[in-house]
């Protein structure tokens, strides 16, 4: 459309007209370009973990005003001439803070935080705005497993964010071994056959996107060791039982003997009495 718009009138103009036409065209297009809606910066986060929205370096830190918004609601601001802080909205209180470079740290992230954040910075009359969109990464929490069973973990990256940045994903176990698993679109799965005690603990789904943007999504895995069958314990118990039976047998024999002896002496005594 623009090509037709530009080329068609050019045919009917002389050189000077052409030049001024192009100049006007440039002036028209230039501001349109600079006001074009800036793309949102993709940021991944997991509920329960923390995330930092990095402010882009801009202006002189000692001069700038920084305002952070969530879905157009002011969250936190920084004013270089005042030391006071605003009250964060109730559902954000105690969860947000500004780092020294005015990046926004959210800890812990909740289900309701997956929206659009905006960082507006002013220095005198200059102003710049960055928008961020928080996307969710969900990780399964497997139930406690007996050692020897297959451990299956999944890590799902919100589809829209996944399609925008195509992150690369790998897994890190408690044994610090990197594993790759397999993927189906935005869903990643890892199976550990014959899980054992070394797999008990914190598993990380490492979502890497961009040059140095990493989300460590985590989940805790509990592997229950099967009670070890201690052969010596079994031997000791059986041995103990045998000894008890033996002692009981001996006791019975002794008692029987004792009774016989008693009967014999009684009979003997009776004899004696009769003789008298
Ligand atoms: C992710 O976890 C690994 C292993 O514990 C650690 O070395 C790395 O610093 C973590 N990265 C982030 C961004 O938390």
Automatic annotation (TrEMBL):
Residues 148-222 form the Ig-like domain. PROSITE patterns: IG_LIKE. It holds the Pfam family V-set. The chain crosses the membrane at residues 231-256. InterPro entries: Ig-like_dom, Ig-like_dom_sf, Ig-like_fold, Ig_sub, Ig_V-set. It comes from the Eukaryota. Gene3D superfamilies: Immunoglobulins. The keyword Transcription regulation does not apply. Keywords: Membrane, Signal, Transmembrane, Transmembrane helix. Residues 1-34 form the signal peptide. This is Ig-like domain-containing protein. It comes from Hemibagrus guttatus.
